[in-house]
Amino acid sequence: MSAARSGGGGFAGNKAALPSKPCVHCGRPMSWRKAWAKNWDAVKYCSEACRRGKVPRAPAVGPAR
Ligand SMILES: [Zn+2]
């Protein structure tokens, strides 16, 4: 009569595993937001600034050697 409590198995109790992905512009990991629930797949930028393509720091672009 051993009641099997764990029906599934293999799930280590990490319930709140929200999806996250890096911003395609700055590369910073952005966590899932409720506002993005509808178009999470289409979200690519972490902020409006990144969406507009503003770069806080210009990459080192020296003269081509
Ligand atoms: Zn970004």
How would you sum up this structure, described in words?
The chain is mostly loops and 65 residues long. The protein has a domain at 20-52. Helix content is 8%, strand content 9%. The chain contains one helix and two strands; from the N terminus they run ββα. The chain has one helix at residues 48-52; strands at residues 20-22, 29-31. It has a two-stranded antiparallel sheet. It is elongated. The model has no long low-confidence stretch (mean pLDDT 79).
**Ranges with pLDDT <50 over ≥5 residues?**
none
Coarse structural class? little secondary structure
List each distinct ligand once.
zinc ion
> Rounded to an integer, what's the Rg over CA atoms?
20 Å
Termini, distance in Å?
Answer: 77 Å
Write down the overall geometry.
elongated
Mean of the pLDDT scores? 79
Strand order of the largest sheet: 1-2
Sheet with the most strands?
A: 2 strands, antiparallel
Number of helices: 1
Helix content: under 10%
Number of strands: 2
Strand content: 5-15%
Element-by-element helix/strand order: EEH
Give the helices and strands, then pairings:
Blueprint: E1 20-22, E2 29-31, H1 48-52
Antiparallel strand pairs: 1-2
Keywords for this entry:
binds zinc ion; little secondary structure; single chain; two-stranded antiparallel sheet
Describe the structure concisely for a colleague:
This protein is mostly loops. The chain has one helix spanning 48-52; strands spanning 20-22, 29-31. The mean pLDDT is 79.
